[in-house]
Amino acid sequence: MAGPAVLAAAGMAAGRFKLCLAGLTHGHARGFLNALVKRSDVELAGIAEPDVELHARYGKLFSLKPETFHTKLGAMLDAVKPDAVGAFSSTFDHLEVVRECAQRRIPVMMEKPLAVSNEHARAMREAAERAGIAVVVNYETTWYRSHARLKAEMEGAGGFGKIRKMVAMDGHQGPKEIGVGPEFLGWLTDPVKNGAGALFDFGCYGANLMTWMLGNQRPEAVTARVQTCKPQIYAKVDDEATVVVDYAGAQGIIQGSWNWPFSRKDFEVYAEHGYAHAIGGNKLRLRRPKGQEMEVAELAELAVDERDPVSYLMAVAQGRVKAGGLSSLENNMIATEILVAARESAKSGRTVVLRRA
């Protein structure tokens, strides 16, 4: 039997985690692959993408062999038999990816948000439960040290009290303005494939974080207002969205925009006796009860299995971590409810009262 040294010399192929990608039309695929190809413990076992032009582009960008690419997801999964799948398709196509993976009992992680509708979300949950697989959702903000510390402060012994208001501000200048690829822009600006415009693209962050902060509490009502400030660019979808989410004893305000002057992902939480402001991933301001506002000098690193999406997906697939928190299906079912209610409210001009579960 080959020893550890032999395996190491052979690239540890026998023990590497086999990960496949489903789709390349989501622009975040580039960052995910950039991190993935630098790891020695993960094998990129295949990419399923119908658009062969994307095969050529990503193959050149990451020096990938032609045999890495497939046009049919099911055929790739049967041939490769990966340990997990990362989905980088349109949000509308998440359901198909989950169904294909569930048939083969393969855990899957998709880019945020979970779904374009409650019907899609429920169908994914049913498929996952029947197959006994994990379905997790990746948000950039999940891996922010500032958010982990913010939650720890609110739930600790510092006497902050109950949360009363949360404000999430997420977005950038606009997908076309920042230069996303045509394959990404094409479905981001499609109300069917994206679910909406900035409302779903960036409103999902606030829905996800607020649900997490309140322990997966479902809201009572949702009121939303959307606009298209740049109709010459975004003719079919909104580029500006404000959502008010009413909870029992608390309120959330979600501001998702393709009109910020700069990219931002800020989250403010106000409790009975203090507040915390997370500014991006590495900055946190606090005002504790009876104290002055302060900036936290150092933010602790997250646990090794929870620092990035690749590590987290591996840990979930290998049974070291149970999918939970911001990435969990439970959280993201509620986040989908908020987004769908916001879309309905914006269309009708009325507050949408959520039914009891």
Detailed description of the structure:
- The chain is globular and about 60 Å long.
- Mean pLDDT is 95; it is low at 1-13.
- 35% of the residues lie in helices and 23% in strands.
- Helix 5 (94-103) runs parallel beside helix 6 (118-131) and helix 6 runs antiparallel to helix 13 (329-348).
- It folds into two domains: 4-138, NAD(P)-binding Rossmann-like Domain (Rossmann fold, 3-Layer(aba) Sandwich); 144-303 and 326-353, Dihydrodipicolinate Reductase, domain 2 (2-Layer Sandwich).
- The chain has a nine-stranded mixed beta sheet. The protein has a six-stranded parallel beta sheet with strand order 3-2-1-4-5-6, with helices on both faces.
- The protein contains 13 helices and 15 strands.
- With 357 residues, it is α/β, with parallel strands linked by helices.
- Helix 5 (94-103) links the parallel strand 4 (84-87) and strand 5 (108-111).
- It has helices at residues 4-9, 28-36, 52-62, 73-80, 94-103, 118-131, 145-155, 182-188, 191-194, 198-201, 203-213, 309-317, 329-348; strands at 17-22, 42-48, 69-70, 84-87, 108-111, 135-138, 163-171, 221-227, 240-247, 250-257, 264-271, 275-279, 283-287, 294-295, 352-353.
- The longest helix has 20 residues, at 329-348.
